[in-house]
Amino acid sequence: MERLAAFKARGIDVACMAVNDAFVMDAWAKTQNVPEGLRMLADGNGHLARALGLELDATAFGMGLRCKRFALYAEDGVVKQLHIEAPGEFKVSAADYVLEHLPD
User: Fold this and answer.
1) Average pLDDT of span 39-67
2) In the structure, what pLDDT confidence band is assigned to residue 1 with cuts at 50, 70 and 90?
3) What does the pLDDT look like over 67-82, one tens digit per residue?
4) pLDDT at residue 43 is higher than 90
5) Which of 18, 48, 63, 93 has the fewest CB neighbours in a 10 Å radius?
6) What is the 3-state secondary structure (H, E, C) of the chain?
7) Are 99 and 89 in contact (CB under 8 A)?
8) What is the signed CA dihedral for 60, 41, 91, 100, rounded to 10 degrees?
9) Across the chain, how many H-helices and E-strands are there?
């Protein structure tokens, strides 16, 4: 959220996607004070996660199908960069990392 203006300055729309329903995403946005312009996308059945090959089976933890943490940069619907985190990490999907690696 802190880097949203930096993405907007480059003409990039930003979205947060999670394998949750729209009601959970809306509640999460409200409790986290998500700013206007940051889209919260619900992938309730995990269809996008599966289509991207990023599904994560967390049934052993009582969470069912989830999605790996990732950052995706696309232009005109074409994926140009996909940064997938190693389990338990938050490095390559962080806003600063993505901003540093965007094409000029």
Assistant:
1) 94
2) confident
3) 999 999 999 999 999 9
4) yes
5) 63
6) CCCHHHHHHCCCCEEEEECCCHHHHHHHHHHCCCCCCEEEEECCCCHHHHHCCCEEECHHHCCCEEECCEEEEEECCEEEEEEECCCCCCCCCCHHHHHHCCCC
7) no
8) 160
9) 4, 6
